[in-house]
Write a structure and sequence with these properties.
Blueprint lengths: L1 E5 L4 H11 L5 E5 L11 H17 L4 E4 L2 H6 L1 H12 L4 E3 L2 H14 L5 E6 L1 H6 L1 H9 L4 E6 L3 H6 L6 H16 L4 E5 L7 H8 L4 E4 H15 L1 H4 L8 E5 L3 H12 L5 E4 L4
Parallel strand pairs: 1-2, 1-3, 2-9, 3-4, 5-6, 5-7, 7-8, 9-10
The structure holds D-glutamic acid (DGL).
């Protein structure tokens, strides 16, 4: 099984692209909706929740887990990979969403070196962690990086306010400093922002290329499975999809199906503590 973990609903945008790109595999999705959003929480708390979530998914039989949440990838992934995994599941693998998109941007800048002004938007925790800055600077030294946290966007998306004029006004407010910096590439560093892709593109204008994770993360996963046949061989390919939430099943299903763009057949409630 491939495990996909997110604080709540947002990771379903990543799973959606896995199901399109790699439909044959079995997937388990875990959304910790009872404790979401993670985006304004402390690094210690995010790490604790992540440890509980990946432990749950490994116990369910996952060989590989994708942390489909930027906040978790930024705040907890490194410690999980370097310390927790070797001590607990030395054969297990946990991957995140930051490196695939940072690599795609670095690749783009390599092609057009003059277009080297990069903007990042995300939750407060993701932006404060500077995880994107670190990865981008490693891959492409000399980039001009600007970032902006957009804490109001997650609740607006979850309320279904994507097309409303209030949301457009808030987007303009958040994106203005990045527009003034004349950025060439904008990273959508939060899973929810996929649902605002068109609105964000419109505000940023034609000269700015907007990078959204799902497509790049799915490509990276496909590539990873080719490069690791020993892991790939262990993952069942019966197209099974199971969804777990830590909160109300009906609410998860109703909103989740909008993020996933398809029906969720098996949804169960779990407790991670
Ligand atoms: N999934 C989170 C992210 O990509 C956004 C939601 C949250 O704050 O929990 O950062």
């Amino acid at each position: 099984m491939i495990g996909v973990f997110d604080s709540g609903f947002g990771g379903l945008t990543i799973l959606k692209s896995f199901l399109a790109r790699l439909p044959a595999y079995d997937y388990i999705y875990l959304g910790d909706s009872a404790r979401a959003p993670y985006g304004n929480k402390s690094p210690e708390l995010i790490y604790k929740y992540t440890e509980e979530a990946v432990d749950f998914l490994f116990k369910k039989g996952c060989e590989l887990i994708i942390v489909a949440c930027n906040t978790v990838s930024a705040e907890a992934l490194r410690k999980i990979q370097q310390k927790w995994l070797p001590e607990n599941y030395s054969d297990g693998r946990v991957l995140g969403v930051i490196i695939p998109i940072a690599e795609a941007v670095a690749e783009e800048v390599k092609k057009s070196p003059k277009r080297n002004r990069v903007g990042i938007i995300g939750t407060r925790s993701t932006i404060e962690s500077r995880a994107y800055n670190r990865e981008l600077e490693k891959l492409s030294p000399g980039l001009e990086i600007s970032s902006q946290s957009c804490p109001l966007l997650v609740p607006l998306v979850e309320e279904g306010w994507t097309g409303r004029k209030e949301t457009k006004m808030i987007l303009k407010y958040y994106l203005r400093p990045l527009k003034l910096k004349k950025i060439d590439c904008l990273i959508l560093g939060c899973t929810h922002y996929s649902l605002l892709f068109k609105e964000i593109e419109k505000v940023m204008g034609k000269r700015c290329q907007v990078f959204d994770s799902p497509k790049f993360v799915a490509e990276k996963l496909a590539d990873y499975l080719v490069r690791h046949p020993e892991i790939e061989a262990k993952i069942f390919k019966k197209k099974k999809r199971i969804f777990y939430t830590t909160d109300d099943v009906n609410r998860f299903k109703n909103l989740g199906e909008k993020f996933l763009g398809q029906k969720m057949e098996i949804v169960e409630k779990v407790s991670l503590q």
